[in-house]
């Protein structure tokens, strides 16, 4: 494993997920969270725990990315495929939380979308930085690119 590539892919994926999370939670889902404020910890306590949430997201990005690499994943297409399989389980898990917590469907779906975006960002980034130059798949590999640049 190339730790430089892993660090770069993790930074790219985490950066994209970080920006998405802020926009998703602070803008798109803000009214849903506000309407159900009674389901959350007090604001001061939540704010103290935010770094723990970011750390968990960073570790999830790193570990799922390493799993992709260790399983022999190469290229953007394979990275996104890997992410889609993980997302399927993640979506079911997010919706399953509704059996344990009295959260409205909008919050559960919000968690599912957020998790899916994180995994797709990971799949794209790790696929982009881990590709097999001999396989014919390069970063940004497309049918048009293959026609224009045959192997």
Write down how many β-strands occur, each being a DSSP E stretch of 2 or more residues.
0
Distance between the termini: 26 Å
Alpha-beta classification:
mainly alpha
Which of globular, elongated, flat, extended, rod-shaped describes the shape? Answer: elongated
Flag low-confidence runs. Answer: 135-147
How would you state the average pLDDT, rounded?
88
Supply Rg: 18 Å
Share of residues in strands: under 5%
Helix count from the secondary structure assignment: 6
Largest sheet: none
Helix content: over 70%
Quick take:
This protein is mostly helical. The chain has 6 helices and no strands.
Structure description:
The protein is mostly helical and 151 residues long. It starts with a helix and ends with a helix. Mean pLDDT is 88; it is low at 135-147. The chain contains six helices and no strands. It has helices spanning 3-28, 30-35, 43-70, 76-96, 105-129, 143-148.
Structure characteristics:
mainly alpha; 6 helices; 151 residues
Write the SSE topology.
Blueprint: H1 3-28, H2 30-35, H3 43-70, H4 76-96, H5 105-129, H6 143-148
Helix pairs in contact: 1-3, 1-5, 3-5, 4-5
């Amino acid at each position: 494993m190339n730790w430089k590539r892993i660090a770069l892919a993790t930074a790219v994926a985490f950066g994209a997920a970080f920006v998405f999370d802020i926009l998703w939670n602070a803008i798109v889902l803000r009214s849903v969270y506000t309407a159900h404020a009674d389901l959350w910890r007090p604001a001061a306590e939540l704010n103290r725990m935010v770094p723990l949430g970011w750390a968990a997201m960073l570790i999830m990005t790193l570990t799922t990315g390493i799993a992709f690499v260790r399983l022999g994943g190469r290229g953007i297409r394979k990275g996104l495929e890997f992410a889609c399989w993980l997302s399927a389980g993640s979506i079911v898990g997010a919706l399953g939380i509704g059996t344990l917590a009295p959260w409205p469907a909008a919050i559960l779906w919000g968690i599912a979308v957020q998790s899916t975006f994180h995994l797709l960002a990971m799949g794209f980034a790790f696929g982009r930085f881990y590709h097999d130059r001999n396989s014919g798949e390069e970063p940004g590999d497309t049918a048009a690119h293959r026609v224009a640049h045959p192997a």
